[in-house]
Design goal:
The chain has about 280 residues and is of the alpha/beta class. About 30% of the residues lie in helices and about 20% in strands. An eight-stranded parallel barrel has the order 1-2-3-4-5-6-7-11, surrounded by four helices. Helix 3 crosses helix 4. The protein is globular.
Length: about 280
């Protein structure tokens, strides 16, 4: 199984981001996605910084894909998006249909990210006609769905988010700004205070969700590492580790070496993969 490292979805300081990718550069991870996918107000690391990081990682022999925003809300974000797609050097992960439309218009191949709702083979085949080389399965779908959609053999690759907090939804409202009693436009980049998001619990103090700016994530990490042989059998090409902290690099490195556990980690979830509620832990 090929192992990829997904884009950082949290708001880290510029120095922490550069330290993280310096460590990635020294790892055997073959494919790295990077870029701001959650909120355009997070300006600590600018697009030029991501391009510089991409070139650094590429110089170490890695495949690099630049990921775009999951929710395009303003004309300025669309203008920035077009500039990103016209970068001329790196492949793009399109996380919004606006990115797909621009890529199709420009004739640029792209990877379809997990936040675009692809729920049948006909849609995926049409996206492939528009230049899609690979798609990342939406996180709420199952092994059975993926097996069916990859039959007969497709002319595009499939990738699964196999470890990390699942990106469940994106909203026009910002939950972190609301938590701090701030307006979205004057948030002061409050997300930087929560490098792994804000844990939301039920009234019984059970972990429920993780709020990350405008993004809602699963409270628990999804863990599908023990399912890698199953994924290989049904035609999955890439297993993605969605980074949470520096330890994510270690985990992705172990997977690259073929080292993975037989059972799901404690406190992890894997329900969607098994046709259950996503927060469930199926042994």
């Amino acid at each position: 199984m090929n192992i990829s490292l997904g884009p950082l979805m949290y708001c880290w300081s510029k120095s922490d981001v550069f330290t993280f990718y310096d460590d990635v550069a020294n790892s055997p991870i073959p494919l790295v996605y990077l870029g701001e996918t959650v909120c355009s107000r997070r300006r600590q690391v600018k697009w030029a910084d991501y391009v510089a990081l991409a070139k650094m990682l590429q110089s170490t022999g890695k495949q690099v894909v630049l990921s775009t925003l999951a929710l395009i809300e303003t004309a300025s974000e669309q203008t920035e998006l077009r500039k990103q797609l016209e970068n001329g050097d790196f492949a793009i992960e399109a996380n919004d249909m606006a990115a797909v439309a621009i890529a199709n218009e420009l004739g640029i191949p792209f990877i379809c990210g997990p936040t675009i709702n692809n729920y049948n083979r006909a849609t995926l085949d049409k996206m492939a006609e528009w230049g899609m080389q690979r798609f990342v399965m939406p996180v709420d779908l199952s092994c059975d769905w993926l097996k069916a959609v990859l039959t007969p053999l497709a002319n595009f690759e499939a990738e699964v988010i196999g470890y990390g907090h699942l990106p469940l939804a994106h909203s026009a409202r910002c939950f972190t700004a609301r938590l701090k009693g701030l307006a979205k436009d004057g948030c002061g980049i409050a997300c930087e205070q929560y490098p792994q998001g804000v844990l939301a619990q039920t009234q019984e103090h059970q972990p429920l969700l993780r709020l990350n700016g405008i993004q809602t994530q699963s409270a628990a990490c999804c863990d599908l590492r023990q399912q890698i042989p199953v994924m290989e059998a049904i035609g999955v090409s890439w297993f993605r580790v969605s980074p949470v902290n520096q330890q994510s690099i270690t985990m992705a490195t172990e997977l690259t070496r073929g080292e993975f556990p037989d059972t799901i980690a404690a406190n992890a979830c894997n329900g969607y993969w098994h046709n259950n509620a996503g927060m469930e832990r199926v042994i």
